[in-house]
Amino acid sequence: MKLFIKNMVCERCKMIVRIEFEKIGLYCTSVELGAVEILDFISDKQLQMIKVAMQKCGLELIDNKRSILIQKIKNVVIEMVHYSDCDLKINFSNYLSSELNLNYTYLANIFSETEGITIEHYMILHKIKRVKELIGNDELNLTEISWKLNYSSVAHLSNQFKKITGITPSAFKHLN
After folding, report:
1. Maximum distance among all alpha carbons in the chain?
2. What is residue 40's three-state secondary structure?
3. How far apart are CA 15 and CA 32, in angstroms?
4. Which of 2, 41, 68, 140 has the greatest count of CB atoms below 10 A from its CB?
5. Is CATH 1.10.10.60 correct for 123-175?
6. Residue 28: beta bridge partners?
7. Domain ranges of the chain
């Protein structure tokens, strides 16, 4: 049985979900961003316990198809921007369509209607979040960061960063 969970965005979330399921007596065969798979049957009591446990952790059990699809889209973006070493130069709309086996226009329309922003804007927000992390780590310079996140130039990264955050990457680095 596969359960879908909203707001899982990192490895720590996956670890917490696994622990919480084990406390309830359910053992996960797989835990990925936004989804948990278990072999056991889940009773109504256990399902309620899962809902409460997830809520305490800032997560939410999802049970409607539209919300599950939105979470899947978010997970693909988060996985690609934050955790993947794959080449971000590939066409993202094609990549997303192939990952979810659905037409990109359909995905984009559902996402925009539900979230109030486009998939592209959501991706930009996560790219900027990743830029902040990489600047904070102080391991890469801006040129390397712009290359790693598929910006056409440092100027493009800087302009987008300033548009989203209100400050330049250099000013952000000095704040840290």
Report:
1. 55
2. coil
3. 10
4. 68
5. yes
6. 38
7. 2-63, 66-118, 123-175
- The amino acid at residue 75 is N
d(CA 133, CA 39): 37
Average pLDDT over residues 67-95: 83
Residue 136: C-alpha distances to residues 34, 104, 123, 172, 173 (Å): 27, 34, 20, 9, 7
State how beta strands 35-38 and 2-6 pair. antiparallel
Place of tokens 């359960």: 3
Which residues contact residue 164 at a Cβ distance below 8 angstroms, ignoring those fewer than 6 apart? 124, 125, 128
Helices (runs of H) and strands (runs of E) counted in the chain: 9, 4
CB 56 within 8 A of CB 49: no
Kindly indicate whether the domain formed by 2-63 is annotated with CATH number 3.40.50: no
C-alpha–C-alpha distance, residues 70 and 101, integer Å = 14
* Intrachain domains 2-63 and 123-175 with the same fold: no
Tens of pLDDT, residues 42-60 = 899 999 999 999 999 999 9
Work out whether strand 28-32 and strand 2-6 pair parallel, antiparallel, or are unpaired.
Answer: unpaired
Q: Write down the pLDDT at residue 86.
A: 59
